[in-house]
Amino acid sequence: MRRRPLLVLISVALAIFLSGVTGLILSGRNEPGATDTVATPTAQASVPADDPRVDEEGDTPEEVGTAYLQAWAKGDLNAMAELLVDVPPEFATLHREFRTAVGADSIVLSSGSVNPTGPNSVELPFTGKWQLKGDEEITYPSVLRLLKSGPSWKVDWLPDVIHPDLQFGGHVVRSPIPGQAPRLATREGEPLPLDSGAEPYVADLMVGAHPGEAGWLAEIQNPGEPAIELLREEGDGPAPRVTTTIDRYIQMSAARALDGVANPAALVAIRPSTGEVLAVADRLGGKGAFQQKFPPGSTFKIVTAAAVLGAGLTTDTQVACPARYQIPNGRLILNYQSRDHGTLSLRQAFAQSCNTTFAQLAVERLTADTLVAEAGRFGFGGDLATGAGGTCGSLTPPGNDDAMAEDSFGQGTVEASPLCMAAMAAAVQNGTWRSPHLLPAAQLPQPMPRELPADVVAALRVMMAAVVTEGTAMNGGLPAGVAGKTGTAEVGQGRPDHAWFVGYQDDLAFAVFVENGGTGAGAAVPVAARFLNAL
Predict the structure, then answer these.
(1) CB 332, CB 379: distance < 8 Å
(2) What is the mean pLDDT of residues 312-316?
């Protein structure tokens, strides 16, 4: 600080004492270590050394106050602290809080005239003008209190120096203004179709979704008092979106395909090349399409066929399809309506959905471990990372030939969800099993895709195409290029059978399930036809 000369005119000192000190304007970056601060005091007359306001170091209170404001303008908290009577614990914290909360870029401090308040105390009024990012600013008046502390003038710091409304125990807080609630969107960024059957699934995706911010608010929060708003920055952005993998048009087609189905039913569609769930129309309730498991009936013959193909059979291998097959020392297996197809190719037996053929092949050519392992290739035995939960399928390793035969055509202990069966059809179409998902894959940890044997996949495609061109789905009104497998699953207790149809067309795989709907050909295939013909 400047030292005053020892010889000055008493008259000039008296004039200064009466009129006070003229204004001082300080400006600079409100950041520690800034170098572009400019201090521009107006000309001041000298003060005599014997003036009662001059401390033992030769400084006046206005000089100390000026030095404090200069340090503040520079953001030099250390220099400011050296000029305090004592340094409260919250001194630096509150200064930083205020600067951060309002988003200040620089500050201009304009001082007024010193006002004596006692023999050893004065007040230095000043105006603080914070320049914010952009063209906004905050301006308010405040007071710097100075005391003769021992031999020197010092600043008696209170929180209201930073802002007149700030008190000890208070804080300056910047908080986000909550935005609009996130909205779910299809892959195209459009709203989800109403009453489409996907609502319970996409609702799970909203759990933990942040509503976004519509701006921010800076306010003073003093203990026991209402908050005092300093600054509000309103945003005008759109509501944040949670984008799903659902295709709006495919979802609408799936929902409308179930219209008129009296029984609880579900339709799940998947993109085989990615595993994305393109549609889930669920009239089962309780997210049954993902989480409920049902006996899949003859649609499980896809797994059994893959196992026997892996054991060396081909689509042209001649097999028997009698009306009845007696398991040695076991139960009697019947074809649907006890139909006898004689001897035919494996492709034809699959197309006609011969229970006796697959029961005999499983008993004679497969082991329990082989069948369980083949099911595992298609996701059985695990949960699915969809983003909205989900399970695939399960089966207990068959302990005897009776159990092996029943499991071979999707009865016995075999159960699967519609989601699982759609993923199975997708794996045949693409040659790789992928876990289905409702959110973009980058947002979910995904199991590694499982590539299926190329020769087995090629044969399954031939067999599933035959189901539509010459088998149980031949007269179902399906468009060209569809391959699939029907399933009729017995549920016992005098209830009607479950109806299934799973398949694919190009890069679209699907599963249709109608609970207690009857036959796959009679109840599920017409739903699939309405769905695919609408695309």
Answers:
(1) no
(2) 98
Interhelix angle 418-430/454-470, nearest 10 degrees:
110
Distance CA 52, CA 45 (A): 16
Indicate whether 187 pLDDT > 70.
yes
Cα dihedral sign, 380-383-387-389: positive
Q: Give the whole-angstrom CA distance, residue 84 versus residue 381.
A: 71
Count of CB atoms situated within 10 Å of the CB of 481: 11
**Are 319 and 357 spatial neighbours (Cβ–Cβ below 8 Å)?**
yes
297 in Cβ contact with 305 (< 8 Å): no
DSSP structure class, residue 148? E
φ/ψ region of 147 (left if φ > 0, alpha if ψ in -120 to 50, else beta) reads beta
Q: Structure tokens of 102?
A: 């309002």
Closest CA to 323 of 307, 311, 335, 305: 335
Query: What residues have CB less than 8 Å from 290, skipping those under 6 apart?
Result: 201, 268, 280, 384, 386, 388, 389, 390, 391, 417, 418, 419
The pair of structure tokens assigned to 212 is 């976004």
Which residues 6+ apart lie within 8 Å of 210 measured at CB? 182, 240
Output b/e per residue, 442-452; b: 16+ Cβ within 10 A: eeeeeeeeeeb
pLDDT (tens digit per residue) in 333-356: 999 888 999 999 999 999 999 999
pLDDT confidence band for 237 (50 / 70 / 90): low
Helix (H, G, I), strand (E, B) or coil at 420: helix
- Whole-prediction pTM value? 0.68
Residue 445 vs residues 155, 243, 435, 440, 491: alpha-carbon distances, Å: 59, 17, 10, 10, 36
Cα separation of 372 and 367, whole Å?
9
3-state secondary structure 266-326: EEEEEECCCCEEEEEEECCCCCHHHHCCECCHHHHHHHHHHHHHHCCCCCCCEEEECCEEE
User: How far is 56 from 253, CA to CA, in rounded Å?
Assistant: 90
How is residue 118 written in tokens? 């006692």
Distance from C-alpha of 98 to C-alpha of 84, rounded to nearest angstrom = 19
In degrees to the nearest 10, what's the CA dihedral of 409, 415, 416, 418?
90
**Cα separation, 501 vs 487, whole angstroms:** 6
β-pair partners for 386: none
Mean pLDDT of 196-215: 72
The residue among 284, 348, 272 whose CA lies nearest residue 314 is: 348
- pLDDT, average across residues 495-521: 97
Q: Is 226 exposed, middle or buried (0-12, 13-18, 19+ CB in 10 A)?
A: exposed
